[in-house]
Amino acid sequence: MKLTTNRNIFKYTENSRTEREDEIAVEYPLTVVLNGDEFATLVCSPSDLEDLVIGFLASEGVIRFPDEIKTISLDEKGGFAYVEITHQKPAGAEFYSKRFIGSCCGKSRQSFYFYNDVKTAKTVLTRAQITVAQCFRLMRLLQQHSSEFKNTGGVHNAALCDPHSILIARTDIGRHNTLDKIYGHWLRNRIPLHDKLIVFSGRISSEVLLKTAKIGVGIILSKSAPTDLALQLADQLGITVVGFIRGDQCNVYTHPERITETIAPD
């Protein structure tokens, strides 16, 4: 399915009006039917849908391993993903929407979680490091990667990288969907994560930070800003957050020991 569509528009400047064809990002609703029951409708870009569904179910705590999925089939025209899993999904709406208040890592500050986040988010203990120059380079590579972003400006991008290159890149209208697509691909392929990081185009919200923790990556780079709650969670979950990577400048917000000025020895 196409990620973009074309539409005739009027483009104005201060002194002129022209009619032209513009490229627009496609917004696609995908309803996940889990063991015969409608579970959720994801509004997404129509690409890498199987990765998206698997990553979403893992992020929600419905599955932990891909072999818990018995079957998965996509009706792309109708907008449905039919999934059969080996067990019953946790009963009760509270599993997916109940707030859980609790101290994390023995600290007195109280953190805000969904109940399923408590079950699936994990502290990241990686010793991976990356240089400041590598941060700049990876962000440039991400920005160059997506033709959909260049043509529409209406999508987000995320990539799983090592310090030198992009390994997996995903595009979506929803920034959180890009991470679920990466999570789903990782679950199916089990790429070692000890030296990996995520490069991201959007704002680092608490939801984005928690998805990073669920994947198990210890560094996230973004061209945009983090939120206060995201940084509280990053402090507690052991994740290095680098934001406002623009040109040759960036801000390191948490766990700065992973960001170095020179390449670390092998």
From TrEMBL:
<dbReference type="GO" id="GO:0006777">
    <property type="term" value="P:Mo-molybdopterin cofactor biosynthetic process"/>
</dbReference>
<dbReference type="GO" id="GO:0016783">
    <property type="term" value="F:sulfurtransferase activity"/>
</dbReference>
<keyword id="KW-0963">Cytoplasm</keyword>
<dbReference type="GO" id="GO:0005737">
    <property type="term" value="C:cytoplasm"/>
</dbReference>
<dbReference type="InterPro" id="IPR003786">
    <property type="entry name" value="FdhD"/>
</dbReference>
<feature type="active site" description="Cysteine persulfide intermediate">
    <location>
        <position position="105"/>
    </location>
</feature>
<keyword id="KW-0501">Molybdenum cofactor biosynthesis</keyword>
<comment type="function">
    <text>Required for formate dehydrogenase (FDH) activity. Acts as a sulfur carrier protein that transfers sulfur from IscS to the molybdenum cofactor prior to its insertion into FDH.</text>
</comment>
<dbReference type="Pfam" id="PF02634">
    <property type="entry name" value="FdhD-NarQ"/>
</dbReference>
<dbReference type="InterPro" id="IPR016193">
    <property type="entry name" value="Cytidine_deaminase-like"/>
</dbReference>
<dbReference type="GO" id="GO:0097163">
    <property type="term" value="F:sulfur carrier activity"/>
</dbReference>
<comment type="similarity">
    <text>Belongs to the FdhD family.</text>
</comment>
<protein>
    <recommendedName>
        <fullName>Sulfur carrier protein FdhD</fullName>
    </recommendedName>
</protein>
